[in-house]
């Protein structure tokens, strides 16, 4: 009699052979060639609007076109919070040589593949737990139809995918690529590649950071294909799974922010960024800012 682990392996291997996984959203910038690693990536914060945001003050809409309001805790504000209007963000790599662009491009694509695979494994585990007696009790067509319906019902979910499992998959893929090739090693290979990739993975803006919890992912699931042909007991095409990852961009706070300031009162505008990306070196980021140009009335 097969064990549960064996049943799950048989189930997952069969389903994985019948599907195609597409990832999108905040898992990466979607570059198509290494030279694009030199291109700045621009994103508007309006892509990240959620119900948690306050509504835009009608009086400020004309002054802050495209601004997305975000409440920031402040002891100096009468309401207990001030509003910051986020507009857009531009990110770019600082790469010393063209070989670095090839390396970044390779790791970005490997991250997307590893992320999709590990997300799929979480889905398969949940599907198996919901249908423990399914293996051996239905034919292949019924199995895939049930799996399709299961994914369709997932909607948007928070998932726990460990950073270490993604790093392990990325390194395994790198080793397969390198075996048998007489090529110059990537610069990262000369360092502690596990630690370096761990930091790289946490630079991706798909991770959500709940207080005192490991990084997690918010994923919206979609599925196409795999439907029954009319009057035939077979699927119309392979099942394509869509994993769309929510964007969690870096945010800047302000110490004792006040949106309403009265004449002759003391006003401080000091940006801060703390615990931007916990569990990585990015939690130690510093922020440089410029306020200007100066005016005679602003002293």
Outline:
The protein is of the alpha+beta class and 299 residues long. Helix content is 28%, strand content 18%.
Descriptive notes:
It is globular and about 80 Å long. It has a domain of 189 residues. It has 5 helices and 11 strands; from the N terminus they run αβββββααβααβββββ. A hairpin with a 7-residue loop joins strand 7 and strand 8. The mean pLDDT is 82. 15% of the residues are buried. With 299 residues, it is an alpha+beta fold.
Labels describing this entry:
single chain; alpha+beta; 5-stranded mixed beta sheet; 11 strands
Overall number of strands: 11
Outline, from the CA principal axes?
A: globular
Please, how many helices?
5
Rounded Rg: 24 Å
**What is the H-and-E element order?**
HEEEEEHHEHHEEEEE
How far the N terminus sits from the C terminus, by CA atoms, comes to 81 Å
Query: What is the overall pLDDT average?
Result: 82
Structural class by SSE content? alpha+beta
Profile the largest sheet: 5 strands, mixed
Tell me the fraction of residues in β-strands, as a range. Answer: 15-25%
Write the layout of secondary structure elements.
Layout (H helix, E strand, L loop, with lengths): L3 H14 L1 E7 L15 E4 L23 E6 L7 E6 L1 E4 L6 H33 L9 H13 L3 E4 L3 H16 L14 H9 L5 E2 L7 E9 L14 E7 L7 E2 L16 E2 L27
Parallel strand pairs: 1-9
Antiparallel strand pairs: 2-5, 3-4, 6-8, 7-8, 8-9, 10-11
Helix pairs in contact: 2-4, 4-5
């Amino acid at each position: 009699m097969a064990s549960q682990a064996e049943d799950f392996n048989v189930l997952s291997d069969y389903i994985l052979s019948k599907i195609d996984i597409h990832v999108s959203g905040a898992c990466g910038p979607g570059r198509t060639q290494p030279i694009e690693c030199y291109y700045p990536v621009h994103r508007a914060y309006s892509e990240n609007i959620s119900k948690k945001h306050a509504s835009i003050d009608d009086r400020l809409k004309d002054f802050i076109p495209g601004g997305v309001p975000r409440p920031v805790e402040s002891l100096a504000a009468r309401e207990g919070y001030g509003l910051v209007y986020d507009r857009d963000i531009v990110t770019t790599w600082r790469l010393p040589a063209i070989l670095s662009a090839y390396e970044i491009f390779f790791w970005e694509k490997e991250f997307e593949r590893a992320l999709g695979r590990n997300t799929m494994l979480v889905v398969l585990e949940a599907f198996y737990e919901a249908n423990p007696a399914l293996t051996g009790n239905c034919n292949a067509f019924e199995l895939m139809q049930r799996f399709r319906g299961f994914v369709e019902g997932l909607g948007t979910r928070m998932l726990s995918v460990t950073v270490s499992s993604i790093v392990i998959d990325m390194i395994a893929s790198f080793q397969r690529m390198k075996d048998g090739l007489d090529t110059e090693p990537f610069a990262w290979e000369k360092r502690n590649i596990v630690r370096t990739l761990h930091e790289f993975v946490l630079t991706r803006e798909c991770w959500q950071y709940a207080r005192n919890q490991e990084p997690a992912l918010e994923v919206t699931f979609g599925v196409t294909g795999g439907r029954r042909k009319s009057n035939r007991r077979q699927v119309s095409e392979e099942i394509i799974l869509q994993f769309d990852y929510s964007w969690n961009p870096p945010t800047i706070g302000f110490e004792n922010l006040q949106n309403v300031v009265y004449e002759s009162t003391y006003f401080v505008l000091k940006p801060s960024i703390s615990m931007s990306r916990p569990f990585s070196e990015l939690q130690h980021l510093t922020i440089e800012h410029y306020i200007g140009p100066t005016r005679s009335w602003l002293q």
